[in-house]
Every structure is written in C-alpha cells, then in structure tokens.
C-alpha cells in the first residue's frame, strides 16, 4: 500500500536481518545497506527498539496484522 508501483521500497528488513542484544531486543542496523547512504534510508517499524541504532531514520507505526 505504501509503494503500489514498486518504485520507492528497494529493500525490506525482517527479524532475520536483526541483531539481538544481550537483553533479547532485536535491532536493525541500517549500516549493512551499502547501496544507499544512510541519509536516504527510512525504517518503518512497530517496534521503536528496532531502529535504536539509527533513531533519526525511524518512523514508528502501530502494529498491524494481515489476516488474509
């Protein structure tokens, strides 16, 4: 819905792309994306913890579920 023509979203990160902290929190490290400068990357996630390494790149959203 955010990118119906497929021209804005180039990469998606899921839990398997996360680093788990000693406290069991999953964090997405955007520095692993080498194809674009960090200033051009947004992270939209329902967990504020996930963009803890790059707070300025994060957009928090409410959780949603796709039931079909």
Q: Any chance you could write out the topology, listing elements then pairs?
A:
Elements: E1 18-20, E2 26-28, E3 43-45, E4 58-60
* SS element count, helices: 0
Which whole number gives the mean pLDDT?
Answer: 87
- Order of strands, main sheet, comes to 1-2
Give the distance, in angstroms, between the N- and C-terminal Cα atoms. 15 Å
What is the general shape?
globular
| Helix-and-strand structural type | mainly beta
CATH top level class name: Alpha Beta
What percent of residues adopt helix (DSSP H or I)?
under 10%
Radius of gyration: 13 Å
Oligomer: single chain
Q: What is the β-strand count? A: 4
**CATH superfamily membership, which one?**
HAD superfamily/HAD-like
> How many discrete domains?
1
Largest sheet: 2 strands, antiparallel
CATH topology: Rossmann fold
Overview of the molecule:
The chain is an all-beta fold and 68 residues long. It is 0% helix and 18% strand. The strands form two sheets. The protein has a two-stranded antiparallel ribbon with strand order 1-2. A two-stranded parallel ribbon has the order 3-4. The two termini are 15 Å apart. The mean pLDDT is 87. It has a single domain, classed as HAD superfamily/HAD-like (Rossmann fold, 3-Layer(aba) Sandwich).
């Amino acid at each position: 819905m955010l990118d119906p023509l497929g021209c804005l979203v180039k990469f998606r990160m899921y839990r398997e792309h996360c680093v788990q902290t000693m406290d069991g929190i999953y964090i997405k490290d955007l520095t692993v994306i080498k194809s674009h400068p960090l200033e051009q990357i947004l992270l939209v996630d329902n967990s504020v913890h996930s963009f803890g390494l790059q707070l300025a790149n994060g957009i928090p959203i409410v959780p949603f579920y796709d039931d079909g």
